[in-house]
Amino acid sequence: MVGIITYGVYIPRYRIKVEEIARVWGANGSEISAGLGVFEKSVPDLDEDAATIAVEAARNALLRRTIDPEQIGAVYVGSESHPYAVKPTACTVGEAIGATPNMTAADYEFACKAGTAAIQTCMGLVKSNMVKYGLAIGSDVSQGAPSDALEYTAAAGGAAYIIGNDDPIATLNHTCSFTTDTPDFWRREGQDYPRHGGRFTGDPGYFKHVKGASNLMLEQMKKTPKDYTYAVFHQPNAKFPQKVAKDLGFTADQIKPGLVVPRLGNTYSGASPVGLAATLDIAKPGDTIFVCSFGSGAGSDAFDITVTDAILSDTFRRGAAPSVEKLLQNPIYLDYAKYAKHKGKLVMQA
């Protein structure tokens, strides 16, 4: 059965509080945090980008399970913030972990769901026996223009999943998608920051697509929300996943382990994969996990997952790499000036 062989996460240690961002722009930080359900967000170090985050997440995945990197036949990295417009991040990751040269690789872009699209591709390649293992990563150093609403949540982080059918720690039982052409969020070539169409963000964008993919999954699997131990939804803020979970019939307890956005922010392509990783960090054999991502533009990918006995076996060492909770601990807080330097918001003339 095709499933997750191992996984890894990387989150930079630096943080900035929502109140600090609001202070600079003369806004009410307490009101903004209350409205978003987000209190701080991760910030990349000066030498970190989507590629370095992807590499670290992949290395953490390999720490948990002994896999010959040369057997990884496909590497796909989903991101909105690839370091190069023309030069694949996936090739850098493959080289860094020792998977080159006998592999296929590509960079994916689909706003915040590029990472789950990569998982779907790896599922197909493994299931068709074209590759033994596929590596799917969602990694971002998310962009938000100064004083824009996105700046309060746009964060940095990523998660890596090695997909195979050799004693997986969790089986990927089924996946389905719901996609339309919806102009809720975009960034043109050459622009530093994305723009968003406010009235398309909620119901026409996030809720229509997450509900569409989720209901399709429940219908195809002939299940109800009560059949799942946990659920993970894309988390641009804390309010959206909580509302969509309630509307679909999932409980607060089901989404609690994977709801990391209040202390992390929105890691864009990493958001759903990191939420799933946080859930796998505490999952037990037999647990069932419902996952539904969302990417502006717009679309959602849903997954039905069952945790296996392998998650507690000697071949998988969950404690060999840091958990999401561990990565969220002991943050280093920045003021806005240092945050702007870390994010490259200060552009000097040559």
Give me the secondary-structure topology:
Layout: E1 3-10, E2 14-17, H1 18-24, H2 29-36, E3 40-43, H3 50-64, E4 72-78, H4 89-97, E5 104-108, H5 114-127, E6 133-141, E7 156-164, E8 170-179, E9 185-186, E10 195-196, H6 198-221, E11 230-233, H7 239-248, H8 252-255, H9 261-264, H10 271-280, E12 288-292, E13 299-307, H11 324-328, E14 332-333, H12 336-343
Parallel strand pairs: 2-14, 4-5, 4-6, 11-12
Antiparallel strand pairs: 1-7, 1-8, 2-3, 6-7, 8-13, 9-10, 12-13
Helix pairs in contact: 1-2, 3-4
Give a structural overview.
With 350 residues, this protein is an alpha/beta fold. The chain is built from twelve helices and 14 strands. The chain has helices spanning 18-24, 29-36, 50-64, 89-97, 114-127, 198-221, 239-248, 252-255, 261-264, 271-280, 324-328, 336-343, and strands at 3-10, 14-17, 40-43, 72-78, 104-108, 133-141, 156-164, 170-179, 185-186, 195-196, 230-233, 288-292, 299-307, 332-333. The strands form three sheets. A nine-stranded mixed β-sheet has the order 5-4-6-7-1-8-13-12-11, sandwiched between helices. Strands 3-2-14 form a three-stranded mixed β-sheet. A two-stranded antiparallel sheet has the order 9-10. The mean pLDDT is 95.
Short descriptors:
350 residues, Peroxisomal Thiolase, Chain A, domain 1, 2 domains, 12 helices, globular
Query: What is Rg?
Result: 19 Å
Number of helices: 12
- What is the succession of H and E elements? EEHHEHEHEHEEEEEHEHHHHEEHEH
CATH class group of the largest domain: Alpha Beta
CATH topology of the largest domain: Peroxisomal Thiolase, Chain A, domain 1
Instruction: Name the average pLDDT.
Output: 95
Helix content: 25-40%
Percentage of β-strand residues: 15-25%
